[in-house]
């Protein structure tokens, strides 16, 4: 029998170290082209709009840690919609083109469509519309899809780890039924979201036997299932390399039943590797953050629920942009600070991961956003 080790630590511990960003004296105006130390441009911003969730997925917010005594952020600590919009505008000036709203469960944030409306009114550095996407567990999609679409949301990703009732209920650990997520996906489709992505985190011995059924269910639907390797995000999910099912293994399992052929990336830096069904009935994706690092093309920044900028999913500390905002700094000063942080970025965690680094204190995914 294996024992699950759940360290009792403050889940945001690493992020509590206040790193107040430096405002550089020399602040060239944002040009939309901001390379880090490896030449990676700032292109994507993931925004966590809440650290709360109505699920307790065992690999993300295990009940033993995120229990009734867990201290979630008080409302005053959250970035307001105005603050998020202001930050997004500054990031867009630096080159961000894609926004992903996440959490926690983003649909728990009240009136999220109001935020989406103001983000949709912003422009990229070259005067295009921002591409606004959402990652959700799908539980509230049935109710909210129409409003989200009307507000200007472009794309939706729904997480669903199994179609097997018992497995799914055990993984979300709040006994949430599969059918309600499937209804949410159908509602999003009816509201006009096309090519919905379905994220399935695969954990060995937990849901790996459900991979082929998941692929089969969505084959031909126009939706794209993406199989994600179980990652060592945060400190509380008891990650071990032995629990990871490699993307190569997932591709092998699916290919054995329904032949697939590797497809070209849609764009440089695409996180998922694409595989198309040989019979032309759609595609799947695999996200190999553990077995095949994609740090060399990582253009993603993350803004935590309380306004800290993280330049890597596995970062140990963030840069407190909220402190600058609430201290009354100007757009020009904050943009200068963002520029300096990104210019100095060296992150490449997935390239250097070991069992040892996996045990290091890192911020939780529910706080920093997936
Ligand atoms: N609550 C929303 C959801 O589940 O879609 C959004 C936030 S969640 C943190 C974003 C994504 O991260 C989900 O697709 C989830 O499955 C994935 N995720 C969470 N913990 C993970 C882990 N340890 N390894 C790989 N993916 C993980
Ligand atoms: Fe909640 Fe998403 Fe984490 Fe599951 S993966 S606990 S739904 S934030
Ligand atoms: Fe990007 Fe960090 Fe993930 Fe590498 S480990 S792909 S730098 S988020």
Automatic annotation (TrEMBL):
Per UniProt, which keywords does this protein have?
A: 4Fe-4S, GTP-binding, Iron, Iron-sulfur, Lyase, Metal-binding, Molybdenum cofactor biosynthesis, Nucleotide-binding, Plasmid, S-adenosyl-L-methionine
Its family?
Belongs to the radical SAM superfamily. MoaA family.
Write out the residues that bind S-adenosyl-L-methionine: 59, 104, 159, 231
Pathway connected to this protein: Cofactor biosynthesis; molybdopterin biosynthesis
What GO terms in the biological process aspect are recorded for it? Mo-molybdopterin cofactor biosynthetic process
Per UniProt, the cofactor note for this protein states: Binds 2 [4Fe-4S] clusters. Binds 1 [4Fe-4S] cluster coordinated with 3 cysteines and an exchangeable S-adenosyl-L-methionine and 1 [4Fe-4S] cluster coordinated with 3 cysteines and the GTP-derived substrate.
Q: Where does [4Fe-4S] cluster 1 bind?
A: 53, 57, 60
- Give coiled-coil spans as residue ranges: none
According to its UniProt entry, what is the function of this protein? Catalyzes the cyclization of GTP to (8S)-3',8-cyclo-7,8-dihydroguanosine 5'-triphosphate.
Q: Where is the Radical SAM core domain?
A: 37-270
Subunit-level organization: Monomer and homodimer.
User: What terms describe the molecular function in GO for this protein?
Assistant: 4 iron, 4 sulfur cluster binding; cyclic pyranopterin monophosphate synthase activity; GTP 3',8'-cyclase activity; GTP binding; metal ion binding; S-adenosyl-L-methionine binding
Write the Enzyme Commission number(s) for this entry: 4.1.99.22
**Per UniProt, where does [4Fe-4S] cluster 2 bind?**
295, 298, 312
| Name this protein carries in UniProt | GTP 3',8-cyclase
Catalysed reaction, written as an equation: GTP + AH2 + S-adenosyl-L-methionine = (8S)-3',8-cyclo-7,8-dihydroguanosine 5'-triphosphate + 5'-deoxyadenosine + L-methionine + A + H(+)
Q: Where does GTP bind?
A: 46, 100, 135, 197, 300-302
One Pfam family hit: Mob_synth_C
Q: Which cofactor does it need?
A: [4Fe-4S] cluster
Asked whether the keyword GTP-binding is assigned, the reply is: yes
């Amino acid at each position: 029998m294996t024992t699950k080790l759940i360290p009792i630590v403050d889940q945001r511990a690493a992020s509590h170290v206040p790193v107040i960003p430096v405002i550089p004296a020399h602040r060239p105006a944002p040009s939309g082209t901001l390379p880090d130390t490896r030449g990676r441009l700032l292109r994507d911003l993931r925004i966590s709009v809440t650290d709360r969730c109505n699920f307790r997925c065992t690999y993300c917010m295990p009940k033993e840690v995120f229990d009734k005594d867990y201290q979630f952020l008080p409302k005053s600590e959250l970035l307001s919609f105005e603050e998020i919009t202001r930050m997004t505008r500054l990031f867009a000036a630096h080159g961000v083109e894609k926004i992903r709203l996440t959490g926690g469960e983003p649909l728990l944030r009240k009136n999220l469509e109001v935020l989406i409306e103001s983000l949709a009114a912003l422009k990229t550095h070259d005067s295009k519309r921002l591409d606004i996407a959402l990652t959700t567990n799908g539980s509230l999609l049935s109710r909210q899809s129409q409003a989200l679409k009307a507000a200007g949301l472009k794309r939706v990703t729904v997480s669903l780890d199994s179609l097997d009732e018992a497995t799914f209920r055990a993984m979300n650990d709040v006994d949430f039924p599969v059918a309600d997520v499937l209804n949410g996906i159908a509602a999003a489709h009816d509201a006009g979201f096309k090519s919905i992505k379905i994220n399935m985190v695969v954990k060995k011995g937990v849901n790996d036997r459900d991979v082929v059924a998941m692929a089969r269910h969505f084959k031909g639907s126009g939706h794209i299932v993406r199989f994600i390797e179980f990652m060592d995000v945060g400190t509380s999910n008891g990650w071990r390399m032995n629990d990871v099912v490699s993307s190569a293994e997932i591709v092998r399992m699916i290919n054995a039943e329904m032949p697939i052929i590797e497809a070209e990336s849609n764009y440089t830096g695409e996180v998922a590797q694409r595989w198309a069904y040989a019979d032309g009935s759609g595609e799947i994706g695999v996200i190999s953050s553990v077995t095949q690092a994609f740090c060399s093309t990582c253009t993603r920044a993350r803004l935590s629920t309380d306004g800290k900028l993280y330049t890597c999913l596995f970062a140990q500390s963030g840069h407190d942009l909220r402190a600058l905002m609430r201290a009354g700094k100007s757009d020009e000063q904050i943009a200068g600070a963002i520029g300096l942080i990104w210019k100095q970025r060296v992150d490449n965690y997935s390239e250097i991961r070991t069992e040892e680094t996996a045990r290091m204190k890192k911020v939780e995914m529910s706080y920093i956003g997936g």
